[in-house]
């Protein structure tokens, strides 16, 4: 019987602690409520949150830094958040948080066209303007998509570069980012088509995925070269991939024999262009992309544009832009970087 | 204090040190309640200091985010208490996500049927782990590292590089629906609470559960006291596989997207939460309520820090530090308690050790303290 009594005492003690804790929480709820309310109404200016695919990615560091400059130029508040790996489920909590914070606009580069949709729609319902940049979601999940260059333009540019470098014939391979990366896969499909239609002597022998990880991309490059001894060129449509591949090639026998091109940033590629590992590569200016996204966000928040086709808005130094079909704003054509001009760029 | 309770004849005197304190102290002064207290403190602090934390959406999103971890943490707790580990759970989540998509979209099965098959496959995945660990006798760390890659490989192989996104809205909405409109609790908490109660009964109030603790303390001794060690371990891995597959279905419907790489790395979040919740990685001690508090604690800290616009690296640093501290604290508390009991034993009433079973129980209890 004594045992039973003890159990009851214990139960009473536990429930006492629990009820104390719960009432403490409950009490604070009402206090906190008023705090939150006043905090929300106090912020009047434009707050823009940048959500890149992942943090620590030099490409997004550049675009986000330019975005920050642009946001601050019009007196807004800038913030950058993001997951540490490029996964869709990692981005969702940050979108939810932005909705809770009630920021004016969210500028996001999507890791998955569908998985972010519901979270973005909820944010939109909470009054957040949603701009996607670099990598899009389904069109109905965002207000505007800021596109760096058309997929056709990007694919054609890279195929043209590799064709020029290997004399328009021979085996080539692609070193991509994650196997699910939206834009990389779109480009790869278009490159395949372009090669088949316009470059009959070029044979695409392999596509490998470096997951936008330096070491993985490095290892995959090594594997490509040993698996395909006749390989004449590698296309890497990702900045992490091309830098890792260039690093591998520059120290291997294949330097100068296997051509490398793709999408890279001047600072990462400078030494490899100068030492002859890489002749030329392409990219739009990610800084301009960030700037344009920031101004697009402002135009949406101000109500200057709604994201309809034909809407015009001003993007500071970049000039005026017009919204195209499916609420897409196009930055321009990719730019070719080579020995002659690489020193003019610092990003 | 230890939750391991060895059965003994009714009416015998409870004289050994674990029972020298009243029950309420044994229940409240535990690592589990330390985690719960910390959780309450963090919620209290965040409510008052973090803007928007007290908003209606915080806990709704929080539960949606941590639901897969909460679910998988239940069987993982039991697996770790036996001194084993299952690293393949996140890969089973990915595999089940892909299976639901393929069975629904390609084979045209309804979501419940596809889900049921996915759970069965998850149980088979778990059974494969369990067979190799329990009956073949291989170390679970090695086995499940292997199956982590194997199941993930099958998942990615089945779906390739694409993502399946056309799920019926009825089901994707259900995954996000609230139990009562306007409250923070999403539907997924219903199956979780049911499972949690089942696992609490299984672990803390059944002979099977006592066997789980005994295996963690010393599986040879457990074997000789009549615990079917092999079957227990096997069943636990099957449970882990089945629950992970269920979490995979939820994961798929919640994000409306099935991909081979879904939930990559989730196993480490689950194990981190289980350890933070007071389960010993060496086995033999732990409790479900502590684990649940551990999972929610990690969720609340991440949520509050995100609202303060801290980025993921800083959140990881805080959670990592907390985890290391919690692991250290177990050893430290064990050492302090040992010191205390050694000093206390001189003056206090000496424990009467009349038979071998008591002696063994004392030894078992002391070994849990040290962990």
Detailed description of the structure:
- The complex is a heterodimer of chains A (347) and B (371).
- Chain A is of the alpha/beta class and 347 residues long.
- In chain A, 48% of the residues lie in helices and 18% in strands.
- In chain A, the strands form 4 sheets. Chain A has a 6-stranded parallel beta sheet with strand order 2-1-3-4-5-13, with helices on both faces. In chain A, strands 7-6-8-9 form a 4-stranded parallel beta sheet, sandwiched between helices. Chain A has a two-stranded antiparallel ribbon with strand order 10-14.
- In chain A, helix 2 crosses helix 10 (286-302) and helix 5 crosses helix 6 (182-198).
- In chain B, helix 3 (57-81) runs antiparallel to helix 11 (229-255).
- Chain B has one domain: ABC transporter involved in vitamin B12 uptake, BtuC (Orthogonal Bundle), CATH 1.10.3470.
- The chains are: A alpha/beta (347), B mainly alpha (371).
- At the A-B interface, helix 1 and helix 3 of A face helix 1, helix 2, helix 3, helix 13 and helix 14 of B.
């Amino acid at each position: 019987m004594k045992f039973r009594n003890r159990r009851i005492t214990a139960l009473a003690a536990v429930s006492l602690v629990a009820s104390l804790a719960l009432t403490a929480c409950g009490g604070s709820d009402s206090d906190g409520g008023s705090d939150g309310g006043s905090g929300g109404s106090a912020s009047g200016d434009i707050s823009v949150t940048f959500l890149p695919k992942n943090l620590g990615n030099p490409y997004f560091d550049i675009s986000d830094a330019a975005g920050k400059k642009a946001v601050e130029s019009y007196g807004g508040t800038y913030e950058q958040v993001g997951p540490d790996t490029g996964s869709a489920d990692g981005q969702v909590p940050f979108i939810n948080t932005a909705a809770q914070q009630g920021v004016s606009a969210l500028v996001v580069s999507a890791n998955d066209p569908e998985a972010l949709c519901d979270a973005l729609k909820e944010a939109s319902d909470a009054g957040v303007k949603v701009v996607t940049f670099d990598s899009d979601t389904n069109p109905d999940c965002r207000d505007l998509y800021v596109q760096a260059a058309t997929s056709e333009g990007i694919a054609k540019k890279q195929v043209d570069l590799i064709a020029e470098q290997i004399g328009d014939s021979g085996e080539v391979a692609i070193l991509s980012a994650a196997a699910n990366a939206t834009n990389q896969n779109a480009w790869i499909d278009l490159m395949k088509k372009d090669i088949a239609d316009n470059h009959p002597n070029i044979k695409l022998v392999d596509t490998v995925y470096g997951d936008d990880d330096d070491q993985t991309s490095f290892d995959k490059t090594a594997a490509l070269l040993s698996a395909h001894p006749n390989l004449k060129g590698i296309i890497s449509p990702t900045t992490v991939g091309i830098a890792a591949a260039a690093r591998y090639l520059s120290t291997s026998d294949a330097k100068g024999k296997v051509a490398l091109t793709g999408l890279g940033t001047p600072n990462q590629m400078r030494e490899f262009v100068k030492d002859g590992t890489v002749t030329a590569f392409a990219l739009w200016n990610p800084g301009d992309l960030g700037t344009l996204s920031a101004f697009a966000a402002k135009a949406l928040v101000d109500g200057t544009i709604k994201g309809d086709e034909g809407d015009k808005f001003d993007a500071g130094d970049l000039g005026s832009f017009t919204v195209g079909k499916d609420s897409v704003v196009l930055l321009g054509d990719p730019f070719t970087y080579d020995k002659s001009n690489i020193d003019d760029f610092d990003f | 204090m230890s939750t391991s309770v060895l059965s003994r004849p009714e009416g015998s005197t409870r004289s050994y040190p674990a029972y020298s304190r009243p029950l309420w102290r044994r229940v409240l002064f535990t690592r589990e309640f330390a985690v719960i207290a910390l959780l309450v403190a963090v919620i209290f602090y965040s409510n008052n200091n973090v803007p928007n934390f007290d908003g209606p959406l915080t806990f709704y999103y929080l539960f949606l985010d941590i639901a897969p971890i909460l679910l998988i943490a239940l069987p993982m707790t039991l697996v770790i208490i036996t001194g084993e580990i299952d690293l393949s759970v996140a890969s089973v989540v990915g595999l089940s996500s892909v299976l639901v998509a393929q069975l629904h979209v390609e084979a045209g099965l309804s979501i419940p049927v596809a889900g049921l098959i996915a759970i069965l496959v998850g149980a088979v995945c778990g059974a494969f782990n369990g067979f190799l660990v329990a009956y073949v006798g291989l170390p679970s760390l090695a086995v499940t590292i292997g199956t982590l890659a194997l199941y993930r490989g099958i998942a990615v192989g089945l779906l390739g590089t694409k993502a399946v996104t056309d799920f019926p809205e009825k089901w994707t909405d259900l995954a996000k629906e609230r139990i009562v409109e306007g409250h923070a609790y999403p539907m997924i908490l219903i199956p979780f609470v049911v499972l949690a109660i089942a696992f609490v009964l299984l672990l803390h109030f059944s002979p099977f559960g006592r066997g789980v603790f005994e295996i963690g303390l010393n599986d040879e001794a457990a074997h000789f006291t009549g615990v079917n060690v092999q079957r227990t371990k096997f069943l636990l891995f099957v449970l882990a596989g089945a629950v992970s597959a269920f979490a995979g279905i939820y994961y798929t419907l919640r994000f409306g997207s099935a991909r081979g790489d879904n939930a990559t790395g989730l196993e480490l979040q689950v194990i981190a939460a289980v350890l933070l919740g007071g389960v010993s990685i060496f086995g033999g001690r732990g409790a479900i309520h502590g684990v649940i508090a551990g999972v929610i604690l990690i969720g609340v800290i991440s949520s509050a820090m995100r609202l303060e616009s801290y980025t993921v690296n800083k959140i990881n640093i805080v959670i990592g530090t907390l985890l290391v501290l919690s692991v250290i604290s177990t050893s430290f508390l064990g050492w302090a308690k040992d010191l205390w009991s050694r000093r206390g034993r001189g003056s206090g009433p000496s424990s009467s050790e009349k038979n071998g079973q008591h002696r063994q129980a004392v030894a078992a209890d002391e070994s849990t303290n040290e962990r």
